[in-house]
Write a sequence for this structure.
């Protein structure tokens, strides 16, 4: 038998969106990919993906995952109380206007989350892959599951039939944020669908095909619209050279 690389399937995921000072995104990405990847993972978390927001030149988006909420607390305590953040944290913070736009998420079922191999991560300074990752956030009233069910049972089957299967589908993690130093958005009930495309034209073709599908057009989207608390928001993301998600 041949050895296989271990696959990480985190059960708790943070989707973090940072608003940066004008023109400083590449500075943060260079620092992040050089100093904050392996050093975070040494504490027990996994850095899943780092991205440039294609629709906002001053926004950096990234995801990290944890086996559970207890490990999250221990890992964040260790990293933000450790020597690497003490040395480089002020430089990172100097690039940011806001870092509190954070969704705490989880896979709603086995196999719906991310599966990554950290051992296959590209080295620092690796070129960015020529791909687009879309992350569509659907928002519903807290405590209600009808909208989430419509995403899972109505939208996802058509997404899989008409284009690339989603990389992951996540919903809100309702556990209390036990690391208060880093706020997360509260009162949320979301479903987030992540999909990867070879280029923007493939993304737009898939989007148009899904929207024109009779079941989606006539039944699923109107039903979702009756449940949602806001219009869905899609992030169009360009992975950095060290992102495991691409």
């Amino acid at each position: 038998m041949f050895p296989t690389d271990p696959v990480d399937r985190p059960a708790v995921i943070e989707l973090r969106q940072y608003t940066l000072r004008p023109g400083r995104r590449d500075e943060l990405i260079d620092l992040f990919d050089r100093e904050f990847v392996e050093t975070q993972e040494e504490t027990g978390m996994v850095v899943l993906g780092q991205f440039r927001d294609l629709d906002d030149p001053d926004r950096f988006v990234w995801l990290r995952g944890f086996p559970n909420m207890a490990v999250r607390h221990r890992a964040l305590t260790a990293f933000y109380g450790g020597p690497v953040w003490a040395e480089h944290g002020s430089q990172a913070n100097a690039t940011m206007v806001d870092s509190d736009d954070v969704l705490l998420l989880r896979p709603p079922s086995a196999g719906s989350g991310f599966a990554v191999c950290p051992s296959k991560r590209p080295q620092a300074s690796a070129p960015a892959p020529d791909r687009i990752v879309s992350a569509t956030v659907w928002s519903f009233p807290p405590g209600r599951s009808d909208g989430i069910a419509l995403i899972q049972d109505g939208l996802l089957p058509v997404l899989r039939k008409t284009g690339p299967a989603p990389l992951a589908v996540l919903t809100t993690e309702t556990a209390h944020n036990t690391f208060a130093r880093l706020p997360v958005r509260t009162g949320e009930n979301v479903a987030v669908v992540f999909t990867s495309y070879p280029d923007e034209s493939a993304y737009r073709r898939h989007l148009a095909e899904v929207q024109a599908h009779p079941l989606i057009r006539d039944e699923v989207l109107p039903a979702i619209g009756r449940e949602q608390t806001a219009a869905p928001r899609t992030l169009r993301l360009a992975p950095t050279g060290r992102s495991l998600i691409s």
Q: What stands out?
A: The chain has a mean pLDDT of 96. The radius of gyration is 18 Å. The first strand starts at residue 12 and ends at 20. The first helix runs from residue 25 to 35.
